Amino acid sequence: MKKIICALAALNLIILSLASCSFGGKKTALTISGTDIDSEIYAYYLDRVEQRPEDYGLNSEYKQSEARDAAVDLCVRYLAFNTYFAENGLSLSVSEKVSVSDNVNNFWMRSGNHFEKIGVSKQTLTKILTSEAYENAIFSYLYDKGTGDMEAEESIKVYFYGNYVAFRNICAYYTTDDGSGRITEQERLALVDTFNAIAAASGTDSDSFTTACSDAGYAASDIAVLEKSNEGYPAGFFDNVNGMQFNEVKVFEYSDSIFAVRKESLVELGEGLYSSYRDTCIKNMHADEWSAFVEDYISTFTVDAKNV
């Protein structure tokens, strides 16, 4: 408890400083709508862009001016979220503040030397991660009506059960053991026969699928949950699984692989599973609205970046 109280006290001091972004003699890097953004905040965002330029629409041969522009844009987002959060009287919960404090400590433990090298203090890192918590809180404020709103909650559940599937599977790839080429056609047909035999031997219960896989020399996976837009599986995989009946086992063949899949019921897996995906569903449902809101709000801020 003492640890939590100390962490919250330290974080509260940082939060109080967020409205005044340049203080304690720090050099001002740019001014946004009359508010000074200090050089540490700008340095953090510039480093973020330089570490992963592709995340900000830049190629590997980006110009330094392009990186600076991207960093300035991130500074504007930083101030915008801080401003909206304060103007609407929002607050972070105790658990959210503790999460920020824990994230700062973990981040600093891993990368503190790097941040010190680029001139970013732990206090500034706390300000950055607190602003990110503000962003999440603003999203929830705008789009999460809480589980007490039955109509809104029902729409989230409809999205979840319509855009996610649960399944167990085994998979084999049509490549040689050393990965140097493709297996022969005879070997491919043998795999197809094996997988079809597994499907035929599987009953409607999960244990029979496990046994059929094991008897053929394969270990069935644990239950996986897949979102419709996930690109980690072959094209068409989600639609194939989504079209199956619950507890059914089918074989799907793709250009370089073959799957034996048993479809599981999301409903039978329990309300806890839905709850664990609820926030993600809300973000997916309102992604376009959120982007439009952020861009519209940010456009009201003016930037003087003569010092960067």
Task: Give a brief description.
By secondary structure, the protein is of the alpha+beta class. 56% of the residues lie in helices and 12% in strands.
Shape: elongated
The biggest sheet, with number of strands, parallel, antiparallel or mixed sense and barrel status, is: 4 strands, antiparallel
**Series of H and E elements:** HEEHHHHHEHHEHEEHHE
What CATH architecture of the largest domain do you see? Orthogonal Bundle
Radius of gyration: 26 Å
Helicity level = 55-70%
% residues in beta strands: 5-15%
- Average the pLDDT over all residues and give the rounded result: 92
In whole angstroms, the N-to-C terminal distance is 43 Å
CATH topological fold name of the largest domain: Triger factor/SurA peptide-binding fold
Report strand order across the widest sheet.
4-3-6-5
Total of helices: 11
Number of domains: 2
Quantity of strands, as a count: 7
Helices, strands, pairings?
Blueprint: H1 2-18, E1 28-32, E2 35-38, H2 39-51, H3 64-87, H4 94-117, H5 122-143, H6 150-163, E3 164-173, H7 185-201, H8 206-215, E4 224-227, H9 237-242, E5 249-253, E6 257-264, H10 271-285, H11 287-298, E7 303-304
Helix pairs in contact: 1-4, 1-5, 2-3, 3-5, 4-5, 6-10, 7-8
